[in-house]
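Figure S4 source data
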Amino acid sequence: MSKPKIAIFEFTDCEGCEVEIVSLREKLLVLEKRVDIVNWRLGQENNQPGPYDVTIIEGTPITQDEVDRLKKLREESKVLIGLGACACLGGIPAIIDTKKRKEFYKKIYGEKYKPRGIDAMPLAAYVKVDFLIHGCPVNNQEVVRIISELLAGRTPQYRGYSVCFECKQAGNECRLLNKKPCLGPITQGGCNAVCISGGSPCYGCFGNREGAEVKNLLKILNKITDQKEIDRYFSMFLNRTKN
């Protein structure tokens, strides 16, 4: 019986999520015995064309050529998975105010520059995405979990709890109770509350959990800080969510 063919591609990104896959080391080698990674620019030299059983994509398409390639990969793939915040939510590239894009082009590249870039959007804005592995970067154990679920013939499930649950497990003090902004209550778990454990707030890179009470969180945030700061928190990862 032939092993499932897996391909890993990237668009505009920092490749940090793929580095997390590489950092699996021995676990990646074990995983490779169960699958056939046939196309991965970052991990190997010899790559094969589609079709693929599973295609994993990091990054967001910001040129029409990348959008066209994404659509072709969708046609060639039985299962398409978004890897990381840029693929799932638009990520860091989506932070820029679209109204200011021309101004930045002119300032950075000069008057004669003819831009090819388009607004950064999640993969789901262009094609059907079968599953999203959130994070900035992803939790590499989540990658193993999702692929293992697929190999077992099961449909992967998202975490049914928020980052707050993982904060309690880690013994962190609640930022909101300490009058500090945080998006943990509305953000899907799976990151092990790594940012908060390190002294930073949650900016929502794992996306909204199902049934997230955004309005209730906004009521709390309005008592803690001003609207400008609230907008800054929500603009980091959640301003282009399409799914």
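Figure S5 source data
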Amino acid sequence: MRLRRYVLLRVLQFVPVTFVVIVLNFLLIHLAPGDISLLLAGENADPAYLALVREKFGLDKPFLEQLWRYLIQIGSGDLGLSFRSRQPVLDEILEKVPATLLLVGTSLTLSVAIGTWIGTWIARRPGSTLDSAVSFAAVALFSVPVFWFGLMLILLFTVEIPILPAMGMTSLDGPRSGPGYILDIARHMVLPVAALMTVSVGQYVRLARTSVADVLGEHFITTVRAIGFPERTVLHHYALRNALLPVVTVLGLQLGLVLTGAVLTETVFSWPGLGRMIYEAILARDTPVIMGAFIVMSLTVALASLITDLVYAALDPRVAL
């Protein structure tokens, strides 16, 4: 019953979070310098045409009225029309989402798997030379700017040793279906995924190492060892299972950081996802696209946080107490 009430409370909290995200998104965009109507009408537009543009897009209304209209518009599922393409923003976002999900999902999965495995491996000998070296490398990797690392990867594996493509999601002259198409996408993913993994893999190494080392010092681990279980079973079946809770928590919170890194990574590698779309929309001052993309990304992070809390409560019922 307590777990059910906790789940209901967390789900209800998502509603005001959504409202605050939408309002803050509107405020930040409209407090930015510049006149949107001048962008739409052109800097050399005559005053009559400029007034017509402001009236058409509701830019002549008071700020609170504009906000109210925007809330009603978002509530109906309408994110507006792109200033550049004159296409619905929601359609443009949905078109870019699969590419970003592929990139972010792959990098997160590999980061968690590789980081947890390395962290568990070095946790068996805390304080050793190997532990210190890997921990130092993890911290250094986490500190590297993702865009700089992406440029270094391009310089090394595309310019100096030309074995991997650096731009786009597919080759212009590549296959468009079948195994060849999948392989082509996989080759284009190698460098951006490697760059994006720098945002998170080091953190998972440190987190898994600390969590597993703490669990290995618990009394129940001593009991399990005394019974005679193999060390491999003790490590993976008992220690790792109990050490995964912090990893699950960070996984949900990490999504926002990874999405931020995806904007830079997709820009560097010309990956046709949400990040690249936001970059191009900022350059063109395409306000509806910027606002729509920010709402989608913000709500994705909030939803990931909600799911993380629910999974954590399911794994550890004490959370709901």
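The domain at 90-320 is CATH 1.10.3720.10 (MetI-like fold). The longest helix spans residues 231-269.
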